[in-house]
Amino acid sequence: MSEVLESLFGSKARARILRFFLLNAGEEYQPAEVAKKNMLKKQETRREINNFKKIKFVVERIKKGKKFYTVNTEFSFYPELRNLIVKSNVYPQCKSLGKVKDIGIVKLAVVSGVFLNYSRSKADMILVANNVSRSKLKNLMNSLEAEIGKEINYVLMNSEELKYRLNMTDRFLLEFLRGPHDEIINKVSGLKNLILALKNE
User: Fold this and answer.
1) Which one of 48, 59, 64, 186 has the lowest number of neighbouring Cβ atoms within 10 Å?
2) Using an 8 Å Cβ cutoff, are 141 and 162 in contact?
């Protein structure tokens, strides 16, 4: 779907910035911050923001001599654009999810929340991994957030913590697994049967 958006809106930069502002309504950002969060060049980011400003899709505010921008929720096509963007942010269109396996010895990776347009989920992703590379984890999250346009709320634990939480019937974990989610990786023995039992309760 990201390729579709890029074709519709003319470029990856334009599609990412449009999505970023729509999914972060009410927040104000400087162009350099928008460029960093979306992994784009500062020059192309400023150009696209200026284009959006001309059609009044974004509003400019100046604070202490610095320019900040926020989406204009009164923009004529705001509801339609936001609905289109929300529908595009679903698994498995996120290419960066393929990098999950590289962060360490990954036993479990499940997504919900922003990936499935399920706003009731208390997390977007649960990762169970051992020997995690913090730098690779950071790169993964940066890539996913740039692709999706929104900060990802994730939970990271190791195998021992997962075992402890399951034994303690951790409410957060069980609610997550009971709700809508998709598995990227599942190497946890017996977990599929547990999830099936939870959904049949």
Assistant:
1) 64
2) no
Pairing of strands 125-130, 154-157: parallel
Token look-up 């690779």 returns 136
Measured between alpha carbons, how far is residue 130 from residues 15, 123, 171, 173 in Å?
35, 20, 23, 18
Tokens at residue 42, please? 């500062």
Q: pTM of the predicted model, to two decimals? A: 0.77
Contacts of 140 (CB under 8 A, 6+ apart): 96, 99, 100, 102, 103
The one-character DSSP state at 18 is: H
Q: What is the pLDDT along the chain (201 residues), one digit of tens a residue?
A: 455 555 557 788 898 899 899 989 999 999 999 999 999 999 999 999 999 999 999 999 999 999 999 999 999 899 998 888 876 655 556 788 889 999 999 999 999 998 888 889 999 999 999 999 999 999 999 999 998 888 999 999 999 999 999 999 999 999 999 999 999 999 998 888 888 887 777
CA–CA separation, 36 vs 57, rounded Å? 21
Cα 28 to chain centroid distance, Å, stands at 18
Helices (H) and strands (E) in the chain, counts: 9, 6
How do strand 66-71 and strand 105-111 relate by DSSP bridges? unpaired
Phi–psi pair at 177, nearest 5 degrees: -70, -25
